[in-house]
Design a protein that fits this description.
The chain is α+β, with helices and mostly antiparallel strands and 112 residues long. It contains three helices and seven strands, in the order H-E-E-E-E-E-H-E-E-H. It has one domain: Aspartate Aminotransferase, domain 1, CATH 3.90.1150.30. It has a four-stranded antiparallel β-sheet, with helices on one face. A three-stranded antiparallel β-sheet has the order 1-2-3. The protein is globular, with a radius of gyration of 13 Å.
């Protein structure tokens, strides 16, 4: 899976929209502006929100491809290397899970 494919997947989810809050690079958000970021796609990796137990399991199963996401809460965010040992289907599921976890934190009026 490429970085462009990850971003396309993110933006295809209901209510998702692109934003450039830091002036470089697009991040997908959900909810009314200012919205909440549910994935941080990069050139060779994507950082996603996960359940804390799932984060431990993912890091243990793929130590070379799943690790800490810089500047983000280690317990709730994982950086997954694209084209690593994590399959494209798993990356898709992780992005969709991250989306669901963030949507669940939105006020009901802002949920898609």
């Amino acid at each position: 899976m490429t970085a462009d494919e990850v971003l396309d997947l993110c933006l295809s989810l209901p209510g998702a929209w692109p934003d450039e809050p830091w002036g470089s690079g697009v991040v997908p958000k959900v909810g009314a502006p200012p919205g909440k970021v549910f994935a941080f796609p990069g050139e060779d990796a994507v950082a996603v929100k996960v359940d804390p137990d799932d984060a431990l399991d993912l890091r243990a199963a793929h130590p070379e491809s799943a690790g800490d996401a810089p500047y983000l809460a280690r317990r709730h965010r994982v950086r997954v290397t694209l084209r690593g040992s994590v399959s494209d289907d798993e990356v898709r599921e992780l992005v969709e899970q991250s989306y669901r976890l963030v949507v669940a934190t939105l006020p009901r009026a802002q949920r898609p």
